[in-house]
């Protein structure tokens, strides 16, 4: 029989609460003959306070042996900004070469959004995950003086840009609308912009059925709000993708519904699935967090591992659950149970 050997990083704040619900739904959604094994990793703010460690080599090695990783949320106000982001989350994305940061946006029924009632919104942002301004390639001169100069260099390699652009064309080609939009800022960021646009145009020639478009990132933010239905697949760099996907979440039902996958399509390393939202320490431990984004991330995980039918079952369960929400407050657990019941039934 088959097996799924899953690493679980519950993390901080509401992370453990939403991950528990994600695992419940995963158990219900998996085919009978797939044996689920999970191993929990104690990483995040508490671990850092206790030991000063963010992601020791030994655990990084152990994580490599899993089929996939499910992560709740990382971050706490008691930890200096950047420590866990760089030392844990980004370290995992870089070490496991998660060059595809997949962030679908769909307007689910009955969701509180400024765009409620609009025509179907269903697009996916393919955010580059290993380059751009996230590489930590910068520095500071005369630090702390009135003459301080800080640089934060955006790294864009032909190899890195081509592989994410190719992945995005493949995805667009496999969707009914077959449309791909490149988002950048090539009127100002001319060197990186040139590399992205040239690569995009060159690969486009191999996909005659995919219609293409280009938008500057500032213009893209306008269309996300005024004409989101124009998008199908979007490919963009790491930082633009970070910002655009928070906006996408906000306009399509809120950050409580936004799922993401940090994917290494080659299979050389485990891919990692996580809700786009953070650890929300203000509501942690109160059973108030909506686990839906984590549940939808579990669907992405299943699709990545070849269980597309099971992923669809989860997405249908979420759709049905949202359609029947009537504004009555439900606990994290209650939402998880309702979704589990729908997936099992
Ligand atoms: C995200 C987050 C991270 C990012 C932070 C926490 C490093 O905002 O997953 O979008 O910027 O990628
Ligand atoms: Mn972000």
TrEMBL record:
Family according to the record: Belongs to the isocitrate and isopropylmalate dehydrogenases family. LeuB type 2 subfamily.
UniProt cross-references to InterPro entries, sorted A to Z: ICDH/IPMDH, IsoCit/isopropylmalate_DH_CS, IsoPropMal-DH-like_dom, LeuB_actb
PROSITE patterns to which the protein is assigned, alphabetical: IDH_IMDH
Keywords from the named record: Amino-acid biosynthesis, Branched-chain amino acid biosynthesis, Cytoplasm, Leucine biosynthesis, Magnesium, Manganese, Metal-binding, NAD, Oxidoreductase
Isopropylmalate dehydrogenase-like domain span: 5-339
Entry cofactors: Mg(2+); Mn(2+)
Superkingdom of origin: Bacteria
Binding site for Mg(2+): 218, 242, 246
Co-factor note (free text): Binds 1 Mg(2+) or Mn(2+) ion per subunit.
Protein name: 3-isopropylmalate dehydrogenase
BP term (GO), one: L-leucine biosynthetic process
Subcellular location: Cytoplasm
SUPFAM superfamilies noted in UniProt: Isocitrate/Isopropylmalate dehydrogenase-like
EC numbers: 1.1.1.85
Catalytic activity: (2R,3S)-3-isopropylmalate + NAD(+) = 4-methyl-2-oxopentanoate + CO2 + NADH
Native organism: Streptomyces triticagri
GO terms for cellular component: cytoplasm
HAMAP family: LeuB_type2
Pathway(s) annotated for this protein in UniProt: Amino-acid biosynthesis; L-leucine biosynthesis; L-leucine from 3-methyl-2-oxobutanoate: step 3/4
Binding site for substrate: 93, 103, 127, 218
Positions bound to NAD(+): 278-290
Top-rank EC class of the record's enzyme: oxidoreductase
Molecular function in Gene Ontology: 3-isopropylmalate dehydrogenase activity; magnesium ion binding; NAD binding
